[in-house]
Request: fold
Amino acid sequence: MYELWLIGIAAGVGVALGLAAGGVFARSDRAPIAAALVALVGGGLIGWLVFDWKAGIVGAVAGALSGHGAGTFARGAVKRGGDYAGTAFILIAAGVLAWAVSLIPVVGFIEAVAIPVFGLRSRQRAGEKFAGLRTLAK
Reply:
């Protein structure tokens, strides 16, 4: 159980790095890819150096998934008129919070799945949110 807890923390570190990288690269058109690569390398290295190779693999996978999801979310927010610095600050703060919450056993694994799903779901619903208001403007 102890090893599972450590691997969950490594997943939380990957998620935190993915969220922070998504915020930092929010202005770029390639934000999902850049954030995923940075979080993949960072999560993998931290997990491997601090814990062991299994935690490194989980940290890298969680980082890549959350970096892609957070990068997609952040790029969409900035494209729709959001402030770059504010988006970066919010996602970096969310990364710190995600890391802190991942100290609870098994929560790091839940975060590693939930963050990418949320980011990709927000991309799919981007056009339909205000679809009814466009008809009123005519």
About this structure: The chain has a mean pLDDT of 84.
